[in-house]
Amino acid sequence: MKDNLVRATAADGGISLVAVSTTETVNEARSRHSLSYLTTVILGRAMGAGLLLASSMKVQHGRVTIKIQSDGPLKGLFADAGRDGTVRGYVGNPELELELINTSSAHPYFDFSTATGRGYLHITRDTGRGQPFSSTVELEGGGVGEDIASYLLNSEQTKSAVFVGEKIENGKLISSGALIAQVLPKANSDNSLIDRLDQQCLNISQFSEHLYSCKDNLSNIFELLFPSLGSEVIHPVGNYQNISFKCRCSRSRSVSALRLLGKKELQDILHNEKESKLTCKFCNNIYIIGETELKQLINEF
């Protein structure tokens, strides 16, 4: 099944559940950026988390950006997700690979904390109207899920459980996605409901395996992980929202960016290089602005 996002409610509407599958989307990013296994996983988790956060925005054109700035060898990360289900992103060091480390599940896994190092997670929500809202928290562990949960608690005062996961088999990413569970504001004073959700989340292990088992019907994951909450899938627009890798770059935007350099610098490019080659960080598309077009830009001044 293609990548998609599905929403659900539980406990008579007191709990919101949102899950997203991103396998094809992350593989697209991996191909475009020549990502290692480690950076595929980290960027994939950030893209999934961004889509979850964007899904709660009220406007269809709303966007969420996730940025990691830290001192680790990852050299930063940026993911940009839209309420419309589109997402893009990149990491500073796409070839980074580190030794696996032992985990509590006895299965060695990626060393996220060393990859990211110490630093900050920045989240920006942009509705397209007025100033975007930005917030920053310290990185908790670099595995993205706990960092996003920390952001939601400290910056938005929303207690949330965030699960991110993936499955790699025979050198291929065969499953990737994320899930968020939140007690809605109208039920914030219901301590028994909060305790029930906390207990359910504590009982969840091997999220990646559960995600993979629901690859053909993502909505099954709610009942699988939260059997005692009485989950009920809702259909605000349709059962599933399609998810895809999509960049907002274009040739016209590249030309506009060149125009900002000014006449002198454009003349230097024309004299020394005869053309300008611009590469989009988000998708690695290359736009070549040739000699004739450079002359036209210079003549505009």
Structural write-up:
The model has no long low-confidence stretch (mean pLDDT 90). The chain has 10 helices and 14 strands. The protein is of the alpha+beta class and 301 residues long. Helix 1 (23-33) packs across helix 2 (37-54) and helix 9 packs antiparallel against helix 10.
Which properties best describe this structure?
301 residues, alpha+beta, CBS domain Like, six-stranded mixed sheet, 10 helices
Give the topology, please:
Layout: E1 4-10, E2 15-21, H1 23-33, H2 37-54, E3 63-70, E4 77-82, E5 86-91, H3 112-116, E6 119-126, E7 133-138, H4 145-156, E8 160-169, E9 172-183, H5 191-202, H6 207-213, H7 220-225, E10 232-233, E11 241-242, E12 244-245, H8 251-259, H9 263-272, E13 276-279, E14 286-289, H10 291-299
Parallel strand pairs: 5-12
Antiparallel strand pairs: 1-2, 1-10, 1-11, 2-9, 3-4, 3-6, 4-5, 6-7, 8-9, 13-14
- Arithmetic mean of pLDDT: 90
What is the CATH T-level topology of the largest domain?
Answer: Hsp33 domain
Oligomer: single chain
Radius of gyration: 21 Å
Question: What's the number of domains?
Answer: 2
CATH architecture level-2 label of the largest domain: 3-Layer(bab) Sandwich
CATH superfamily of the largest domain: Hsp33 domain
The proportion of residues forming helix, as a percent range, comes to 25-40%
Nutshell version of this structure?
With 301 residues, this protein is an alpha+beta fold. It folds into 2 domains: 4-245, Hsp33 domain (3-Layer(bab) Sandwich); 251-299, Alpha-Beta Complex (CBS domain Like), CATH 3.90.1280.10.
